[in-house]
Amino acid sequence: MNFSENFRIALRALAANKLRSALTMLGIIIGVGAVVALMAIGNGATASITEQVQGIGSNLISVFPGQFQRGPGNTAAGSAFLYYADYEALAKNLNNVAGIAPSFQSNATVTYGKKVVNVSVTATTPDYGPVRAYEAEYGRFLTENDRASKARVAVIGSQTAQDLFGGLNPIGREIKINSVNFEIVGVLKSKGSSGFGNADEIVLVPLETGYEKLFGALATNNGKRRVTDISLSAASPEVVNDVIVQTQRLLRREHHLKLTDDLDFSALSQTALLSSLTVITTTLTAFLGFIAAISLLVGGIGVMNIMLVSVTERTREIGLRKAVGAKRFTIMMQFLIETLTLTLLGGMVGIGLGWSVAALVRATNIVQAQVTGESVALAFFVTLLVGVFAGLYPAFRASQLRPIEALRYE
Amino acid sequence: MINIEHLTKIYHLGDEDVHALDGVSLKISKGEMVAIMGPSGSGKSTLMAILGCLDVPTSGSYRLDDVNVENLNDNQLADIRSHKIGFVFQQFNLLARTSALDNVMLPLTYAGVRGRDRRQRAEDALEKVGLSDRMKHRPNELSGGQQQRVAIARALANTPAILLADEPTGALDSKTGAEIIGLFQKLHRDLGQTVIYVTHDPFIARHTERVIRLADGLIVGDEKIEHPIAAGTPRPSEMALAEDTHHS
After folding, report:
1. Lowest-pLDDT range, A31-35, A210-214, A217-221, A352-356?
2. Under a CB-based contact definition with an 8 Å cutoff, are residues A105 and A261 in contact?
3. N or C: more exposed end of chain B, with fewer CB within 10 A?
4. Which residues, other chains included, contact A410 with Cβ-Cβ below 8 Å and sequence gap of 6+?
5. Which residues of A touch B52 (CB under 8 A)?
6. Non-local CB neighbours of A318 within 8 Å, separated by 6+ positions
């Protein structure tokens, strides 16, 4: 009794109950599909965040209101804002800084003709370019002149250019941002990332233009001009931590915080930001994987249940097989192979399903779902384990039946 | 060839012990054709199961070709069933949705016979029972008599030393039953096959050369039949049969 013989018997037994086999397999298919798809989405989220953060520029330090670990705005001091004055204090007093740029960012409706997009609009200074590693591919970047004249000019990201103008040259064209007319003066070089929070879906306007002509009251608090982010670039990677310490000390003084008070802002390097974000997405991936694993476990229990029913139902068949000379081991292998065929077949279809779902998610361009070799291997291994686990007990029960009792079973 | 001594089989039903066999001793030689008879509950099916190594005795010894079967473990018993015994059941017990040929190949598969050899031997066995033209048919496409023939071919596939049958005509009408008994007689006569079958029907029993009677787990009669009835002979009237039974 070799493997291929057993495999053929298993296939025949499964084919004898096609609907039941298909429904049992469905549990495994959905379980494995969920594991593969959800892990792909989790991995995709991690990858796209990593890619974006790395695309922003090295030596970059971001200062923003609130404590990152607790979530924005959640501080002990109560003031969850950063102000233009904070930027001025940092610009004046920080050492070892290559560039510093304040920015006020908000989502806005941008229209060109009949095209409407909702996009992140950032009012900032010309320093934003070098600090955040943005360069103009066509036209120019923002200038000090734009700031001084409060010009209604805008520089747009490559994806936004594509969305609004298709193949047309955007330079010199008029767009409306929240119903205010702006002239496009430049298009940024692509950062090459995509998905949620795309760095190429962006509109930049001069800081003063933003305060006075675009955001108005939204950008002020008690008459003071707010910023949502201050970007710093340290002079070299070695001084990044030093600049962070300086920033914390200076802003603590600006905000009149006592030494015992918690900080009401965050100053994070890219490395720190990346690792914080990676912790979040990794946790998310693990959580999604765990949920999916539960559905796989349920599928496995379904398989075991069906196999136990099958053993009971086929008691006479088992008795007959033993009566004509089948040994315990042979009977056990028959049922084990039957279970494994069921689960592994379901597993393979499930991997295909998960892959398709991931491809579908990718097509929507929200998250770059990536099916990794590890997740497929993991799904396959878990399926194998579920198969052995679900099959072993029914197979053992079948093998232990006494031939005469099995034959007389009604 | 078969030598059993003081064989007992006790079943535990609740608090009660049922003595299905209560000390049976019996010898059957190679080439004999024997019927085991008795009313239901007499222990004849239990004896048959033990002879077929489908069950083990509670005590006593069973020597089959100089092997003490009562000492064997599960796998060794499977080997004996595979190579020395062909068993035919009242309800045929064919695998559904499986062709006659595949059903007959089953014991060969478990005995490790492969490929063309296996197919050839299965075809030979089906030919012996006269079903060469039904090899691809499935059980539900065959009549009861044909199904029982497939079962007999399956029992013969590994050329067993003994062919055992438990009420082989019990699920068949009398004409088809007579054909099956005729097949047993032919196998016995032409091939020297040792045949033992259980029946509760005295007329069917008298188609053999020896009738062993059981009652309450004991052998109560062991009669040699000088002139076995030829298969197909019309059944005598109920009166004559009853008288015949009474005299023996």
Report:
1. A217-221
2. no
3. C
4. none
5. 323
6. A311, A331, A398, A401, A406
* Closest CB from A316, A320, A327 relative to B75: A327
Q: What's the whole-number average pLDDT of chain A?
A: 86
Name the residue in chain B with its Cα closest to that of A403.
B54
**Do residues A230 and A86 touch, judged by C-beta distance below 8 A?**
yes
Residue B6 gets the label, from left (phi > 0), alpha (psi -120 to 50) or beta, of left
Residue B145 pLDDT > 50: yes
- How far apart (Å, rounded) are the C-alpha atoms in residues A324 and A134? 80
Range of the domain at B237: 2-247
* A–B CB contacts, 8 A cutoff, strictly below: 60
Q: What pLDDT does residue A77 have?
A: 43
* Average pLDDT estimate for B150-172: 94
Of the candidates B40, B47, B32, the residue with the CA atom closest to the CA atom of residue B170: B40
Q: What one-letter code names the amino acid at A97?
A: V
Helix axes A18-56, A270-313, angle to 10 degrees: 180
Quick one: pLDDT at residue A55?
Answer: 66
Torsion angle of C-alpha atoms B215, B219, B223, B224, degrees rounded to 10: 130
3-state secondary structure of A382: helix
Among candidates A212, A190, A207, which has minimal Cα distance to A199? A190
pLDDT band at B96 (very low <50, low <70, confident <90, very high): confident
Per CB distance under 8 Å, which residues of A are interface residues toward B?
1, 5, 12, 16, 316-317, 319-330, 402-404, 407
The DSSP call for residue A239 is G
CA torsion through residues B136, B139, B143, B145, sign? positive
pTM for this structure?
Answer: 0.70
**β-sheet bridge partners, residue B59:** B8
The CATH number of residue B152's host domain is 3.40.50.300
* Strand A224-227 relative to strand A265-269, pairing: unpaired
What does the DSSP 8-state code read for residue A233?
Answer: E
Residue A146: per-residue pLDDT:
93
The lowest-confidence range among A398-402, B48-52, B99-103 is A398-402
The number of domains in chain B is 1
What's the pLDDT at B241?
A: 57
Contacts of A317 in chain B (CB under 8 A): 95
* DSSP-assigned states of every residue in A182-205: EEEEEEEPP----STT-TTSEEEE
The sign one gets for the Cα dihedral B197, B198, B201, B205 is positive
Integer angstrom CA distances of residue B157 from A242, B101, B187: 89, 11, 13
pLDDT 10s digits, A81-110: 899 999 999 999 998 999 999 999 999 999
What single letter denotes the amino acid at residue A262? Answer: D
The pLDDT value recorded for residue B167 is 93
Nearest to B18 by CA among B7, B8, B31, B3: B8
Instruction: Please choose, from the candidates A47, A42, A61, the residue with its C-alpha nearest in 3D space to the C-alpha of residue A271.
Output: A61
- Listed in sequence order, the DSSP H helices in chain B are 44-51, 74-83, 100-110, 115-128, 144-156, 174-191, 202-205, 238-247
Q: What is the pLDDT of residue B30?
A: 94
- ipTM comes to 0.91
CA distances from B114 to A1, A84, B81 (A): 9, 88, 18
pLDDT, tens digit (0-9, with 9 covering 90-100), for A26-39: 999 999 999 899 88
Measured CA to CA in angstroms, residue B46 lies from A175, A295, B53, B58, B71 at distances of 97, 49, 11, 11, 18
